[in-house]
Amino acid sequence: MGFDDVSFRGAREFLTPNIDALAYHGRILDRLYAPPMCTPSRGALLSGIHPIHTGTQHFVISNEEPWSLALNTTLMPEIFRDAGYSTNLVGKWHLGFARPEYTPTHRGFDYHYGYWGAFIDYFSRRAQMPMANYSMGFDFRRNMETECADRDVYVTDLLTNEAERLIREQPAKQKPLFLMLSHLAPHTANPKEPLQAPEDELRKFTHIKDPNRRKYAAMVSRLDQSVGRIISTLASTEQLENSIVIFYSDNGGPSVGMFSNTGSNWPLKGQKNTPWEGGVRVAGAIWSPLLEACGYLFTQPIYVGDFLPTLAHAAGIELSESLKLDGIDLWPQLSGTKDAVHVPREILHNLDDVWHVSSLMLGQWKYVNGTTSSGQYDNVLTYRELDDLDPRQRRYVVEVRNSPASKALSRFDRQRLTQSRVNILLRSATVRCGDLQRGCNALLEECLYDLSEDPCEQNNLAYSEPHSEVLSALRQRVHQLRSGALAPGNRPRVSYSDPSFHKCTWDSFEMKKLGKVRLECEYQDLPCGGR
Fold first, then answer.
1. Catalytic residue annotation
2. Does the reported pTM lie above 0.85?
3. d(CA 134, CA 189)
4. In contact, 114 and 142? CB cutoff 8 Å
């Protein structure tokens, strides 16, 4: 999901009223950072550790590769389960499945409903890796068993239905709930039909001329409705009173190129799988009645790896020092006053010695050396649409206040969500770029930026004499971090992973016996019918 694909940032091509309500009634995470790709980002979230310390710093785990997030890494669901929580994952895993011990219910989740791999078709729940000769494979499970029920239901709705069921049934369990709803949307599906949305949703966006962008808008809209449904279900079961709800994207949107979905990271440059702000600064918001400063922007830089110690503090869980987390506890800042003093923050965005890319933020400074894809995505790749505007934008505040999320959250407000209040938040959440002064070719030179003055990375200070000590300090810090990095865990793809050997299913191929006959696998084949 792109940085600018939530309307609380000011875009009006399509609206996200429920997500915006969560942000306005709670706090916009203005400077939330995540690793620039799926597997490293999910690993950092669940472990509280930088990808260089789990071996996930170089690219993602593709379905046909026999490796996983390091098994000696303690994950957030394990910690919360041991503290008495019911731990549930609904949706995407993408941290390895070649062996059963790599999968969610072996890594701390009591329950998993969703898919193990990178992506699936939004209706058939099948995936075909974009490599030659790999078959279409079914990838959807309830715990360890394939789940074929509710065929052809749009997967965003399917996952939301299951999350609602878990929330409704939770009080009877007499346990607190840890629920991670990890949507496919708006990630692309299979290459032949990457963008998919229900027809009734598409009809809402006929004002968007670009057919791909129209589909993307419909996908995000359905995701937004999911947020409203989840908040409403928490309210109807009287569980909002003691809940913390976080919404965020696990990396910047892929505007163009591989897996592109038209996501917009404007005005930031770069995109998914780049070291720039458009790849690592992500859309996010948090809500809880426990937050004192609801309705105010949270400007403290925060990393997805901070969520583990932060939520543990909020839940009263004491963490062992043996975990050696890179994330820090920011609960006092999140839950405190609107002017809580910032904690100095170091965030390692990327340190990949295969592709020779390093990107480090230290306080207000950002250092980049090297880039991905030969630098072809190192610019601003999209611009905000000014013509194809959502007809609802004329009554935007009314749309937000009438959303299911806002109706549920408003009763906890300390100050009413007025037109004036929304306008203040919109202005506060606007990223203001300066003028381009000195660009940087990260393939050939080091790049240094002062993000407090230059959030759009337009003025390279690496050649500025007054900043020579800053440049040297960040260069040295990258060297120190490199000395403690694990080797990347990536392993080459193996042919026996192919679903055609496993009843047309993406399965734990390191442990399962190969079928005697290689099957032909398409959208309607085994294991859910067909031949």
1. 38, 94
2. yes
3. 15
4. no
